[in-house]
């Protein structure tokens, strides 16, 4: 159960959103980056996200630098290393990966692999004495998540999950306004998240690699937003899945899934996830108005309205980094430098995966599933 | 079960949307009005809808004229009669209402009373030998609806429900484009309908008069749209209600209710109804695009987009009447003149009420409720 009074008091007393704690129930905004020392990152996986999205961000970072790459493709690794100034000793493959333990340049490993490999490469990094930033969704199962958390704890290393929206200015501003009561008492949350998965051979569509379909990959943004926008943890879910199994893209994983989240305060959450259309929308309704984002969790171009309808468009103050990825990379580096818990630690990833498991169970069993407090 | 192939063939063969039949499963567009004879209407109830919305529409009608009023307020009735040219013999109260049987001016009775009075005044009209147009929602219970249908059938009189959106150009155009396959195979329907009920003493908020809360009054637009946009009847529902019972407006009826509709073809419907915020939105997604209306079911100002996103805004061709109410009034008159079944007969109202009963049951019992075919 969420202690709403306590959180309300904390906010009222200090306006402090950066209070200690984890997860949506004690949501905390990232603090500004201290300049100075840069920690070294190893990027594991040179796919479209690791190579195309993450690696180009280091030039925007204050506390993070790229020092190593892990790839199964030696030529690609050489090419990327040359382009980004990664030294020869920073190039690894999946066989010699454990050798990162002997590379003092590497402080943090960022796991950008298919979901099924997250647990293994997180645990091996922790055993090699490295902190870990792991892409979302955290893992195919809550058991995997628990093992990842345990491994990092045992190694005395930090574990953070790549929830970039927690470092994105429009989402941060939406959360801030919700928390200070700008739309009154919260009542209803709605989010639709989807994109058109066009490539039938993408690993996202192979259950053994992805752990699931649209919910794991894109619907998780709606779920995570439901939690950070309301600041609560759901205590029951109901879900219905609709997938055209004759579509070659969806032989193994779900396309469309609608799910409802019941929150202890009475807020009702309703989410839709799909792999067959582009949709990116967040709505939070209170008894005095609404907060709306569309797109809400895009790489760029997000928009925010606060009030009633879409008359009052908001331009938020800058986020903690030059962009959401730089903010995320630097936050992890700062947590290591200052020995703080990341605002989106492994426990945050585990929470989403536990809820996702309940959502899948609800869809299978066609019944409401209560969640443990 | 809906015979999709049969409907598809009918549409492909003739482009004929005005085929015989009832309800969403055989949705039919109203045909153009023949000019000529005007049938006489008695308006029962001079409240905000009957007096403020319906009565001013007769001047736009081709086959309908106002000939009688039924009111419990003699002074108001006299004033309205004088303003609209209703003769003295056309003024009734609730005691002498059955005397309409002796007034040959009256062909059709339009029941604009609180919901709890719909059955009684429909049945008495039928027994008085008059056709009936009854406002939505049809009645507080399906048993009432069945009694209304039986009474009109026994009297050999027509019964139509006031689903104005079936005569509204934007909705008709949206339906037409969905039916001809412009957005491909239908996948998902979503609608949010709400308004801020400000007056705690309104009859809408008294359960004995309204039969229920936002779902009966405004959420029914989302439900009816789910049926006419998809052309299908749901075979299961799931619902969650959230009402602040400490709010003086909501001591007796629900405020917010979220409900899911499962359709036999696999289309998933998701609807939200509320009495505590303004919301009016309809989204229909197909595998080749989407149809969106916002507002979707307003008295005026509706907007329609077809394609992907909101790039392609559509201005529909004119509807069957000068406006949705004139179209509705004239449709009923034409059905009487031509001895046709209205496109939204009593059975259409009964269908919604049966689904609403299942939605309420689902919310009470926190479980999925299967609907009889």
UniProtKB/TrEMBL annotation, chains A, B:
Domain Gfo/Idh/MocA-like oxidoreductase C-terminal: 181-371
Domain Gfo/Idh/MocA-like oxidoreductase N-terminal residues, every copy: 40-163
Keyword Transferase: no
Domain of life the protein comes from: Bacteria
Gene Ontology MF terms in the entry: nucleotide binding; oxidoreductase activity
Keywords on record: Membrane, Oxidoreductase, Transmembrane, Transmembrane helix
Transmembrane segments: 38-55
InterPro entries: Gfo/Idh/MocA-like_OxRdtase_C, Gfo/Idh/MocA-like_OxRdtase_N, Gfo/Idh/MocA_oxidrdct_glycsds, Glc-Fru_OxRdtase_bac, NAD(P)-bd_dom_sf, TAT_signal
Protein name: Gfo/Idh/MocA family oxidoreductase
Organism: Massilia forsythiae
